[in-house]
Amino acid sequence: MTTPIRSNVQALLKSRPSGIPQSEHFEIVTSALPALEAGQLLVRNEFLSVEPAMRGWVNAAANYSDPVAIGSVMRSFAAGVVVASRHPAYAEGDQVMGMLGWQHYAITDGSTLRRKVLERDLSLSLSLGVLGINGVTAFFALTEIGQPRPGDTVVVSTAAGAVGSAVGQIAKIAGCRTVAITGGAAKQQLCLDEFGYDAAVDYKSPTFAADLAHACPQGVDVYYDNTSGEISDAVLRHINKHARIVICGTASVSNWEPWPSGPRVERHLLNKSARMQGFLVWDYEHRYEEAIRKLAPWVRDGSLRYREEILEGIASAPDAIAGLYRGENLGKRLIRLHHD
Ligand SMILES: NC(=O)c1ccc[n+]([C@@H]2O[C@H](COP(=O)([O-])OP(=O)(O)OC[C@H]3O[C@@H](n4cnc5c(N)ncnc54)[C@H](OP(=O)(O)O)[C@@H]3O)[C@@H](O)[C@H]2O)c1
Q1: Ligand 1 center–CA 251 separation, angstroms
Q2: How many angstroms separate the CA atoms of 241 and 22, rounded?
Q3: What is the pLDDT of residues 255-277, one digit of tens each?
Q4: What is the dihedral of CA 194, 195, 200, 203, to 10 degrees?
Q5: Kind of pairing, strands 332-336 and 308-312?
Q6: Hey, which CATH number is domain 7-129+307-336, 2.60.40.10, 3.40.50.620, 3.40.50.1100, 3.90.180.10?
């Protein structure tokens, strides 16, 4: 079967960065689109996702997935519409989300798809953010590892971001007091006004340590850590007995080789009978729909708010990851594609 579409535009990994990938590590190319084989479908990507984790996906250092090969399409989540199908489970017009890559069109046998997007009353873009990996991560990491209880103080780093903003609001729904840690006054305000945090502190301020202590008069019961580094060092000083520390991200560590060193936390955890546990959303893949069923009604009734920051066109892809690490994004960073 020939597809109605003949050519594709793709962002390829050109060279391997040692730290945070920059524009020069990618190139945009136009390529021919092959004909669909039996069992395949063609997806027109509408939105591409930009994740901090993509830094790890292109890095040769040990990670939880194989590194993207040089010269291949940048691995990424994307959401789009099926425009042709030779697959029995997918029909033209279906909305899908999955590991479809930084490209205008993706041909897949279905194995790279995460799900059909059934929330047709909501924007398709949400399947990459609050109703995608970010929301699912926030939900399971907080509820299963953080185990928030009413009255707990929950502190969240990268609190204004896609994961952090959802964590704060889910903790609030669970009856907790929420404290945001974020970079800069605009994001602090967003955390207070939009995401309902009870307090917000700026980790870039010279008074950060004192501001944090002031914001946590009852100590910290749950620390949802998206950064590691000095932000975490400051929070760990305030943990309460039986605190739970969720290790979800390490945004402040620019390189994992050589092995970074820092404070020794063991004695501190021991004294407080505290638990620190890593979280990987892939461990919860089989429960993905369970999280969406919880999150979608909260989005619809306004109790789970979100922000999106949409870059226009695939040309914005090469610099998009670096921008996350410059802290530019106000909300979930996405790329909207424009098809000729
Ligand atoms: N474990 C998992 O399965 C899993 C799944 C999804 C996401 N994550 C992690 O969750 C975290 C948030 O992801 P997201 O998609 O929601 O991204 P995001 O928070 O929307 O964007 C990243 C944010 O990180 C902050 N940041 C960047 N460099 C920093 C630094 N040096 N120090 C402190 N903060 C820095 C910036 O916010 P500020 O301006 O506030 O600094 C930036 O806006 C990431 O660490 C990501 O890797 C983990």
Answers
A1: 5
A2: 42
A3: 777 888 888 999 999 999 999 99
A4: -100
A5: parallel
A6: 3.90.180.10
Entry pTM = 0.96
- Alpha-carbon distance 211 to 202, whole Å? 8
Atom of ligand 1 nearest to the CA of 158: 40
- Ligand 1 pocket by Cβ (under 6 Å): 51-53, 133-134, 137, 158, 160-164, 182-183, 187, 226-227, 248-249, 251-252, 279-281, 324-325, 327, 329, 332
Question: Strand 41-49 vs strand 220-225: parallel, antiparallel, or unpaired?
Answer: unpaired
Do 224 and 146 form a contact (C-beta atoms < 8 A)? yes
Predicted local distance difference test score (pLDDT) of residue 3: 60
**Gap between the Cα atoms of 216 and 311, Å rounded:** 36
Cis previous bond, 258, omega within 30 = yes
**At residue 102, what is the residue type?**
W
Q: What secondary structure does DSSP assign to 111-122, as a single string?
A: TTEEEE---TTS
Over 70: is that where the pLDDT of 63 sits? no
How are the residues of the chain apportioned to helix, strand and coil, as percentages rounded to the nearest 5?
30, 25, 45
CA proximity to 103, closest of 94, 112, 111: 112
**Structure tokens given for 103:** 């490209």
Q: Do the Cβ atoms of 226 and 157 come closer than 8 Å?
A: yes
Model pLDDT for residues 93-104, shown as the tens digit of each residue: 999 999 999 999
Strand pairing category for 26-32 and 95-99: unpaired
Atom of ligand 1 nearest to the CA of 159: 40
Reply yes or no on domain 133-282 having CATH 2.40.10.270.
Answer: no
pLDDT at residue 328 above 90?
A: yes
